[in-house]
Amino acid sequence: MLEALFAAAAEAVFSYTFDTLEPAERLHQLEAEATDPEQKALLHIEWGDDIGSPHETALTQQFDRLVFVVGYPTAVKAFYMEPWPGRPEVCKSADLLAPEGYGEIIGGFERMSDPDLWIQRIREAVVSGAVKSSTSRF
Hints:
About 40% of the residues lie in helices and about 20% in strands. The chain is of the alpha+beta class. The protein has a four-stranded mixed β-sheet. Strand 3 and strand 4 (about 85-90) form a beta hairpin.
């Protein structure tokens, strides 16, 4: 009996289909389609901005199942996230959003593996004030 329950649960999980999107284009489309000025203002976003709760809600209302949001701007994420090859302005991170207004339920990213880039990003973060340094080694 328990084996059958586990088998059914595994089948449900492994056969699930996720939608995936990069947020910028979809959010600009939703902003353009909004007729209410307040909603339009809430959805306004510029490239490089992080998405917030109003954006997540609007995105999840477009889907009836879980959706992965990928391709976040590197500038708004932690300095140690791996950039996409050939697209350093975008990092390898993803948030899983649930429909019906639940928003983000889990997030993840690939940690940077290039030590030279790691040190460069630490220096940039210290100079920008995003990270405080107690040493001048970097």
